[in-house]
Amino acid sequence: VQLVESGGGLVQSGGSLILSCAASGSIFVINIMGWYRQAPGKQRELVAQFSSGGRTDYGDSVKGRFTISRDITKNMLYLQMSSLKPEDTAVYYCYAGDLLRNINSWGQGTQVTVSS
User: Fold this and answer.
1) What is the pLDDT of residue 69?
2) 77 within 8 A of 28, measured Cβ to Cβ
3) HSE (CB half, 13 Å, CA atoms) of 33?
């Protein structure tokens, strides 16, 4: 499955952004769909993801500020980000993973920059 992110940009601290991820195939059956981010000089980290059993996980630093959602009819994944902080500045990646279906896909990433 191919993933294409959009919606990144420059925003002031305290502002909001919505990221979108378009998948080339059905996301209904994919075990894991989520968002990760990587800041300069840091490791890629989980932002939010859906996984099997209806589970939703968020990284500790974004809990209460970010919301992950999906539209399976459109094969779209979203990340609504609010109360953004400069430390949220990173490249945000969409991810799809499913061992049984041999899916391990990353999007090209979209830059989010939060100015102070």
Assistant:
1) 97
2) no
3) 27
Backbone torsion region of residue 65, taken as left when φ is above 0, otherwise alpha when ψ lies between -120 and 50, otherwise beta: alpha
CA angle 5, 26, 48 (to 5 degrees): 50
Residue in 59, 54, 44, 50 with CA at minimum distance from that of residue 90? 44
Rounded alpha-carbon distances, angstroms, from residue 10 to 43, 81, 101: 22, 13, 36
Instruction: Say how far apart CA 57 and CA 48 lie, in whole Å.
Output: 5
Q: End-to-end CA distance of the chain, in Å?
A: 37
pLDDT tens digits for 10-68?
999 999 999 999 999 888 888 999 999 999 999 999 999 999 888 999 999 999 999 99
Query: Residue 1: is it exposed, middle or buried by C-beta count within 10 angstroms (0-12/13-18/19+)?
Result: middle
Coil, helix or strand at residue 53: helix
* Cα gap 41→75, rounded to integer Å: 32
